[in-house]
TrEMBL record, chain A:
Any one cellular-component term (Gene Ontology): plasma membrane
SUPFAM superfamilies listed in its UniProt record: P-loop containing nucleoside triphosphate hydrolases (SSF52540)
Species, as recorded: Lactonifactor longoviformis DSM 17459
Name the UniProt record assigns to this protein: Urea transport system ATP-binding protein
NCBIfam families (alphabetical): urea_trans_UrtD (TIGR03411)
Automatic annotation (TrEMBL), chain B:
GO cellular component, one term: plasma membrane
Transmembrane stretches, start-end: 12-35, 42-60, 66-88, 152-170, 203-224, 236-259, 266-287
Keyword Membrane: yes
CDD domains: TM_PBP1_LivH_like
Main subcellular localisation: membrane
Organism of derivation: Lactonifactor longoviformis DSM 17459
Protein name: Urea transport system permease protein
Pfam family, any one: BPD_transp_2
PANTHER family tied to this protein: ABC TRANSPORTER PERMEASE PROTEIN (PTHR11795:SF447), BRANCHED-CHAIN AMINO ACID TRANSPORT SYSTEM PERMEASE PROTEIN LIVH (PTHR11795)
Organismal lineage: Bacteria, Bacillati, Bacillota, Clostridia, Eubacteriales
Membrane topology: Multi-pass membrane protein
Record keywords, A-Z: Amino-acid transport, Cell membrane, Membrane, Transmembrane, Transmembrane helix, Transport
UniProt KW ATP-binding keyword: no
Domain of life: Bacteria
From TrEMBL, chain C:
Pfam families: ABC_tran
One Gene Ontology biological process: L-amino acid transport
Parts of the chain that traverse the membrane: none
Molecular function as annotated in GO: ATP binding; ATP hydrolysis activity; branched-chain amino acid transmembrane transporter activity
Native source organism of the sequence: Lactonifactor longoviformis DSM 17459
Keywords, comma-separated and alphabetical: Amino-acid transport, ATP-binding, Nucleotide-binding, Transport
InterPro entries: AAA+_ATPase (IPR003593), ABC_transporter-like_ATP-bd (IPR003439), ABC_transptr_urea_ATP-bd_UrtE (IPR017780), BCAA_Transport_ATP-bd_LivF (IPR052156), P-loop_NTPase (IPR027417)
The protein's name: Urea transport system ATP-binding protein
Family per similarity comment: Belongs to the ABC transporter superfamily.
Residue span(s) of domain ABC transporter: 2-228
Automatic annotation (TrEMBL), chain E:
Molecular function, one GO term: branched-chain amino acid transmembrane transporter activity
Keywords, alphabetical: Cell membrane, Membrane, Transmembrane, Transmembrane helix
Segments crossing the lipid bilayer: 35-53, 60-78, 110-132, 139-162, 188-207, 238-256, 276-300, 312-334
GO cellular component, one term: plasma membrane
Compartments in which it is found: Cell membrane
InterPro entries from the UniProt entry: ABC_transp_permease, ABC_transptr_urea_perm_UrtC, LivM-like
Residues making up the signal peptide according to the UniProt record: none
Recorded topology in the membrane: Multi-pass membrane protein
Chief site of localization: membrane
Protein name: Urea transport system permease protein
Length: 260, 302, 228, 394, 368
């Protein structure tokens, strides 16, 4: 709460407010009364023990999970919208993009076509039938392909990529859509240090255009890129603040970081 | 009232027959994911087996022991269909795991072949099978309310098979292996499960159950090359309404279609009844897109 | 002693492994590192028999495995933790572990040390594997492989998605296990793996390009390979 | 090129020029696969038997008959395709075939537009008389109408109509309803079940509920087996509620099992037990050809008759030309196993005797009543006052 | 580059097939030509089915319904024309004495043709909208569609007075005033069908080449993910489902004119499955595959059943099994065999060469 006040004071406008959200599976409460808010151009990390509820809350933001209580309000161009009752594609159209924990790209079309679907902003049947990608969009797409190192493989099918390469492709697709809010679930899992650093760099770059929520267990990476960190534990928020302050919290060390 | 009770029993009895006919499919389709269009032909194989057993009894054994054919027929119809299923799995089905639609087409082809084979071997016309005499009577309760022993017997048989399958699948190591293989073949193999053997065995069990059902069907219906086609759609509906992959679902599906169908038929006609119950199936799926007892799982939502 | 000699592997028409030689004796943690797409996963899948190996030898304690079916290799004592977890989503946690136990012809009870290492598995024993969180699934996958008591444990990026405190725990467990079995581990998390490994192979483009004890490896070259 | 084909086509299948060789092609078109194969394969067998006998006896016009067999596959469009193939490609002199009215209706335009000839061996609902078809089975007044009269006199006035859901039963029952009205009978139930329906418990409950004097059964195929097995299971016997079936002959009876059918009634023109010298010969020949196990029945016999009738007409015409054969056919008599049958030159149906029979313990059928002699065919039921309005075709 | 080349190969194949079809009346007897007219109708259905199955991953086991609706609409017109102002024969013996109101407008050919297209599309939109927004997928959708086929068949048979029951509608005399049995009429209908087939083929080519085609494939590969990427997948599915119904409806209308009969036996469960088989045998996920499949399977079925009237089921059954098992991509995938062999050879060469040279290479960089 204090955090929130602080940010309000500094005049940072939030893009997303999670208000008293609870999520239940049967009689198991995976998320209990969680509130937080993500500011514009902020990179927020959600960290916390396995099973704390990080993926669950990302699922809720992008419409994959039903929220049993509370609101998730997105402050976009079209005003404030509660996304808890919206369909996935509509949420996506608001400008919320999502990368999943397990890499998932479309296997039946080439890497190039995967990117093409992602980069297009108009999603109606009419536009996918009659409109071609603008030159600027194509260039942007080429740029991303280069950046994620898949330019040479662009006419191949994603099935021939290794795990790490698929992660990159998915991040690339996400970037291509230029969302206002990006949700990244373990984007650097299975990546080498070098790739991780490259990802960090990239995130800092796109942060200029959007806000990002990252779920990650790689603390080095978190330190490098996070503005603020929310620590989840058993479905509640244990702590929130900068990486430095959070790292000092004994509770966080006990349940999450360990002695290292 | 009497009519109502009679109708209720009719519904339950139709349900038990459906369940009996669908159990094998619940295994091969629900569990293994093979859209087995030849399921009906496994019913047929069981039915013809019962026919042959009966012929042999009449030809070689004294009339006094005729009724015992029933036990032999039940066992043999299971075995013959299971062996056939085993062979088919080894030759064909095993190349189709994970290719549901292809399995549909191939088994469709197999069903054509099996039907024609039945025609070549037994001729096109139906053949007659007599039920054992102790099943030919009915338990008269009151007035027109009487319960044929056949129906009661099939009900018991269906329940028995249901529990057998449940026990095998959820209470034994084999069953656990079967389920593991069906969910992730590579990983099951990497844990030392002989997936090939499990696949054949499971398909054989499913086919055997169909054969057994086919034997039971000889007491109440026709035995001919096209026997299977009469049941194939209904049995698929049964498995799907309840939720493929759930045994309880199949029980529900059989009850829904059996009791609902006979009720509709009672108040309208057989044709309209059929239309109405299928419409209900379509409607129900609107609310329960994966069947009533859909297996909910985080990992399954791609 | 586990050995790969001149192993080749193909995916359909693409050759992925070219002449891989590798040894992983009991009592030592052997690691295999390399960039994304180098062929590490393919190597482990080849060991397990999940990709085609047109040429080369795979042997465990002198017995050749490359002609055996997958399940037979598991029975001969390979425990496998695949990349991407591959738990059985509709089996309960308990059933998942029991499958592992039976792979090693173990019977009945799940040994306590599993639950001591991964307490969450005890708590969720009867939950469906597919409902677990990513990290929980990873823990389950490791538990499932370890519980079979294999002669060699092969792990593909076992720390992926696991919280830091549990990673330390996993490191400890693996170190303990090496007295009982050979361990071959594929990792991107270099700090972790170089810390626990006794011997290290570096792979690039489907070939082993260096090997040695972690301290002895040419650090510049290693860094260059990993970061290219 | 195209005009070439055109002339080719207008020549059609009459094909008297075609059989300048020493054989005459004749078509046989029945379902050898699919649901109707149950009934139709045996008719095909009978037709082949007749052809064989004729060939042994020297053929027709001194030429051997060469059967071309096609499978209608229980599908109307396939029947039509095969009919075209037989007429246009094989240029057969005539075709023996079909069972269901649907298949006959499907091929009718083909036979008419190509001036082909079809010999149809099965009893049917009437209301049709194409000059390209000879109807060897019973018209309604040779089966349904007398059967209802018989039941009315011997069993009572309350009738329950049960049939398969397709054209023959529905149309037959609309005739029965008119007739019942005329006779002062009461239709207490009317049910149709889809082809291949397997459970009759609900309908049997309805029958038990309304207690008719008899059930008039127009079920076809598999359904009969289910119905009669379950009828008996419900504790119903012919003594309690009699049934009369018009689509169960000896072959179907064998498939149902005598124990379930014993005592039930059927109506046909012929039974295997029919006592004529011709029938003795026919039954013997059929069994010799296809096995002791096999039985003969009405459609089988009609199929057999059809071949002989056509052969006689051709002999009389001295050619296989369709128009001339049709011309010659009127009045031709044939000593058939069922008794003497005569072609009615006007509507191309047969004069036939009518017989009510009862299924016995062996699954064979014993005659319990019959007309004195052949009955004149009346496909449009024009001689019955009550049947007015059933048809607008005259 | 590679994709360009692939497209070219199939284009040539398509062109060859269409040219062969166009030339058919010049080298085949008339009734065979009519048969191919029928097969082309089937090819149109197969093409539409491929759009929903091969591309979008929706397996419909009920497309006989849409085919039937198109066919029945057209057949009602033909039947009225044949009746020449009288009540169609089946109605009178089924107890009707007046033409049902629903039949009346079908006396107008334009209305009938419009309905042959509109009714299937409308039904597909309704069914599609409900099922796809309610997320009925995979085999559940397949079985649902099978239930539809069953319902359709049963209703058609059960309402004999309105539909002709199991006989269906047949015995047509004229179409648009022309003798329906006249060779000229038949030839015209043949070429109209071919033209429609080519046009629809081009339409599908256009769609699959555009981004919309990629979206369909994306839906097939991961519907949820396509949704997260911002695509309203239900809309796309309704669209493509309606498109396939549209094509089936047109095929139905063309079919009735040429074959001269439509009956419940042509629209039920069994024919619906057969339609799927044409697509699979030809090769789903390609456009020329299903066309080829429909033509080939039906020619083969005809030939086999003519030559082996009692044994043809064996041939067809074995064919399905063999093709699906050994050519999962359908007969169209035969064209990939040379490439596969080349790749195998390349692999083999690489294997042997690297086996020889790479060993010293490796020891050279070994560093300890
Ligand atoms: N569909 C479900 N049914 C039952 N339990 C569920 C379901 N989804 C999630 N859970 C439980 O909710 C808890 C939170 O899961 P979640 O995936 O959000 O964790 P997480 O924070 O993302 O963990 P990780 O870091 O391991 O990915 C876990 O204990 C998980 O088992
Ligand atoms: N199924 C497949 N079909 C074709 N090629 C594949 C397949 N899987 C992997 N490859 C290719 O094989 C190479 C090695 O892949 P592998 O998965 O073994 O890499 P890795 O070293 O495990 O990488 P990562 O660290 O990203 O998991 C990659 O270049 C990849 O493109
Ligand atoms: N004509 C008949 N029985 O369909
Ligand atoms: Mg997670
Ligand atoms: Mg890997």
């Amino acid at each position: 709460m204090e955090q929130l006040m602080e940010r309000m004071d500094t005049g940072v406008t939030p893009v997303l407010d999670i208000e008293d959200v609870s999520i239940q599976f049967g009689d198991f409460k995976a998320i209990k009364d969680v509130s937080t808010s993500i500011g514009k151009n902020e990179i927020r990390f959600f960290i916390g023990p396995n099973g704390a509820g990080k993926t669950t809350i990302l699922d809720a933001i992008c419409g994959k999970n039903k929220v049993s209580d509370g609101k998730i309000v997105f402050h976009g161009d079209s005003g404030d919208r509660d996304v808890t009752r919206m369909k996935e594609y509509a949420i996506s159209d608001l400008g919320i993009g999502r990368k999943f924990q397990a890499p998932s790209v479309f296997g039946g079309i080439t890497i190039d076509e995967n990117m093409e679907l992602a980069v297009a902003r108009k999603h109606s049947i009419y536009s996918t039938t009659f409109l071609k990608l603008s030159k600027e969009k194509r260039e942007y797409m080429n740029h991303i392909l280069e950046f994620i190192g898949l330019k040479d493989k662009r006419f191949q099918y994603p099935s021939s990529l290794s795990h790490g390469e698929k992660q990159w492709l998915e991040i690339g697709m996400l970037m291509a859509a230029r969302p206002k809010l990006m949700l990244l679930d373990e984007p650097v899992a299975g990546m080498g240090r070098r790739e991780t650093e490259k990802t960090a760099e990239m995130l800092k770059n796109i942060k200029k255009e959007c806000s990002i929520i990252v779920v990650e267990h790689d603390m080095q990476f978190a330190k490098d890129v996070s503005d603020t960190v929310t620590v989840f534990h058993e479905g509640t928020v244990l702590d929130e603040g900068t990486m430095e302050t959070v790292q000092q919290n004994q509770q966080v060390i006990d349940v999450y970081l360990g002695r290292g | 009232m009497e009519l109502f009770l009679m109708q209720l029993f009719n519904g339950i009895s139709v349900s038990s027959i459906l369940l009996m006919a669908a159990l094998g499919l619940a295994v091969t389709f629900g569990l293994m994911g093979v859209i087995n269009m030849a399921h009906g032909e496994f019913l047929m194989v069981g039915a013809y087996t019962a026919y042959i057993v009966q012929k042999l009894f009449i030809a070689y054994l004294p009339a006094g022991v005729f009724d015992a054919y029933c036990i032999v027929a039940i066992l043999l119809s299971f075995l013959v269909a299971a062996v056939l299923g085993f062979i088919l799995e080894r030759l064909v089905i095993r190349r189709l795991y994970g290719r549901a639609a292809d399995s549909l087409l191939v088994t469709w082809g197999i069903s054509l072949i099996l039907q024609q084979a039945a025609r070549s071997i037994f001729g096109s016309p139906n053949v007659g099978v007599k039920a054992p005499s102790f099943l030919e009577k009915s338990l008269r309760i009151h007035g027109m309310l009487s319960l044929p022993y056949k129906r009661i017997f099939i009900l018991i048989l269906a329940v028995f098979c249901l529990f057998g399958v449940y026990w095998l699948m959820y209470r034994t190591r084999q069953g656990r292996n079967i389920r593991a293989v069906m969910q992730n073949r590579d990983m099951a193999a990497a844990l030392g499960v002989n997936t090939g053997r499990i696949d054949s065995a499971t398909f054989a069990i499913g086919s055997g159950l169909a054969g057994l059902a086919g034997c039971a069907l000889t007491w109440i219906g026709a035995i001919g090359p096209t026997l299977g086609t009469n049941y194939i759609v209904d049995t698929f509906m049964t498995v799907v309404v309840g939720g493929a992959g759930s045994l309880l679902g199949s029980v529900f599906g059989a009850g829904f279609i059996g009791i609902g169908g006979t009720a509709f038929e009672f108040f309208t006609t057989a044709s309209i009844g059929k239309v109405l119950i299928f419409l209900c199936v379509i409607l129900l799926l609107q609310f329960r897109p994966k069947g009533i007892f859909a297996v909910k799982n985080r990992a399954l939502e791609d | 002693m586990f050995q790969l000699e001149g192993l080749y592997a193909t995916y359909g028409e693409g050759m992925v492994l070219r002449h891989v030689d590798l040894e992983a004796p009991k009592g030592r943690i052997t690691s295999l590192v390399g960039r994304n797409g180098a062929g590490k996963t393919t190597t482990l899948r080849a060991v397990m028999g999940l990709v085609k190996t047109p040429q080369g030898k795979i042997s465990l304690d002198g017995r050749e495995l490359q002609k055996l079916p997958v399940y037979e290799r598991a029975k001969r004592g390979i425990g496998y933790v695949p990349q991407g977890r591959e738990i059985f989503p509709q089996l309960t946690v308990e059933e998942n572990i029991l499958l592992g136990l039976e792979a090693g012809n173990g019977k009945g009870v799940i040994p306590d040390f599993i639950f001591e290492t991964f307490p969450i598995l005890q708590e969720f024993l009867h939950r469906k594997g597919g409902d677990l969180s990513g990290g929980q699934q990873q823990q389950l996958a490791i538990a499932r492989a370890v519980v079979s008591g294999p002669k060699i444990l092969i792990l593909d990026e076992p720390t992926e998605g696991i919280q830091p405190s549990v990673i330390q725990e996993i490191g400890r467990v693996i170190t303990e296990l090496k007295s009982k079995m050979a361990v071959l581990i594929v990792e991107q998390y270099l700090e972790f793996v170089l810390d626990i490994a006794d011997y290290c192979y570096v792979m690039e483009n489907g070939r082993i390009i260096m090997d040695g004890e972690p301290e002895c490896l040419d650090q510049d070259r290693l860094q260059a390979t990993m970061s290219l | 090129e195209i005009t070439d084909k055109e002339t080719n086509k207008t020549e059609t299948a009459s094909g008297s020029e075609e059989d300048s060789k020493d054989s005459i092609k004749v078509g046989i078109l029945h379902s050898l696969s699919g649901t109707m194969a149950i009934s139709e394969t045996s008719v095909r067998d009978a037709e082949l038997l007749a052809i064989k006998e004729i060939n042994v006896a020297g053929g027709v016009l001194g030429k051997q008959l060469e059967p071309v067999v096609e499978d209608g596959a229980s599908d109307n469009a396939t029947f039509k395709e095969k009919a075209e193939k037989l007429l246009l490609n094989d240029k057969v002199a005539t075709v023996f075939g079909c069972w269901t009215s649907a298949s006959r209706k499907a091929v009718l335009p083909t036979f008419e537009s190509n001036n082909g000839l079809l010999w149809y061996p099965v009893q049917y609902e009437g209301m049709e008389a194409s000059k390209n078809i000879f109807y060897v089975g019973a018209a309604p007044n040779q089966q349904i109408v007398p059967a209802i009269e018989y039941m009315n006199e011997n069993y009572g006035k309350k009738v329950f109509l049960l049939g398969s859901d397709y054209v023959f039963p529905r149309t037959a029952n609309s005739i029965v309803k008119k007739q019942a009205e005329d006779l002062g009978m009461e239709v207490v139930g009317e049910e149709y079940t889809p082809m291949g329906h397997t459970d009759y418990t609900t309908i049997i409950s309805k029958i038990q509920d309304v207690k008719p004097d008899f059930v008039f059964n127009t079920l076809n195929g598999d359904s009969n087996v289910a119905f009669f097995k379950q009828y008996k299971d419900a504790g119903l016997t012919p003594d309690e509620i009699q049934t009369l079936s018009v689509s169960i002959a000896e072959e179907e009876a064998a498939g149902i099992g005598a124990s379930y059918l014993e005592g039930h009634l059927v109506a046909w023109n012929y039974y295997q037990t029919t006592d004529t010298p011709e029938n003795k010969k026919f039954v013997e020949a059929y069994k010799a050809e296809y096995g002791e196990e096999r039985v003969t029945d009405d459609p089988i016999e009609a199929g057999y008759d059809a071949v002989y009738l056509w052969a006689a007409a051709v002999e009389k015409a001295g050619t296989t030309d369709v128009d001339q054969v049709r011309e010659a056919a009127g009045g031709i008599e044939f000593k058939a196993p069922e008794g003497t049958i005569t072609i009615d030159g006007e509507n191309q149906h047969m004069y036939k005797p009518v017989r009510i029979g009862m299924v016995n313990g062996e699954g064979l059928i014993d005659e319990v009543w019959s007309t004195d002699g052949p009955v004149k065919p009346d496909p449009y039921l024009e001689s019955y006052e009550w049947a007015k309005g059933l048809s607008n075709v005259q | 580059m590679k994709t360009m080349k692939k497209i070219k190969g199939t284009t040539i194949l398509a062109a060859v097939i269409f040219l062969l079809l166009a030339a058919l009346p010049f080298y085949m007897p008339m009734f065979r030509v009519s048969l191919f007219g029928k097969y082309m109708c089937f090819a149109i259905i197969a093409l539409g089915l491929d759009m929903i199955w091969g591309y979008t991953g929706i397996l419909s086991l009920g497309h006989g319904v849409y085919f039937g609706l198109g066919a029945y609409c057209m057949a009602m017109y033909l039947k009225l024309e044949a009746a020449g102002g009288n009540l169609p024969d089946f109605m009178s013996w089924s107890g009707l004495d007046r033409l049902p109101a629903a039949w009346v407008p079908f006396g107008n050919p334009v209305f009938a043709v419009a309905m042959a297209v509109a009714v299937p599309v409308l039904l597909a939109v309704i069914i599609g909208y409900l099922t796809f927004t309610n997320k009925i997928r995979g085999v559940y959708f397949s079985i649902l569609s099978q239930a539809m086929a069953m319902i359709m068949g049963t209703l058609l048979i059960g309402s004999q007075a309105f539909t002709g029951g199991s006989n269906g509608l047949t015995d047509f005399k004229t179409i648009f005033g022309q003798d329906i049995h006249a060779p000229v009429t038949k030839i015209v209908m043949f070429y109209v069908t071919l033209l429609v087939l080519v046009l629809l083929f081009a339409l599908c080519r256009f769609l699959t080449g555009r981004r919309v085609g990629k979206v369909l494939i994306a839906i097939r590969d991961g519907e949820n993910r396509a949704g997260f990427a911002g695509y309203n997948t239900a809309n796309y599915k309704v669209f493509v489902y309606a498109l396939s119904a549209f094509m089936a409806g047109i095929a139905g209308a063309l079919y009735v004119g040429q074959v001269g009969i439509i009956s419940p036996a042509e629209v039920g469960v069994v024919p619906s499955v057969e339609m799927i088989i044409w697509v699979a045998i030809g090769g789903k996920g390609t456009l020329i595959g299903p066309v080829l499949g429909a033509l080939a399977v039906n020619s083969l079925k005809t030939t086999a059943s003519e030559n082996f009237p009692e044994l043809w089921s064996y041939f067809i059954g074995v064919l399905f099994v063999v093709v699906i098992l050994w050519l999962p991509g359908g007969v169209i995938s035969l064209k990939e065999i040379p490439g596969k062999i080349r790749a195998k050879l390349r692999l083999h060469r690489e294997e042997t060469s690297s086996a020889e040279e790479k060993i010293p290479d490796k020891t050279a960089v070994r560093s300890k």
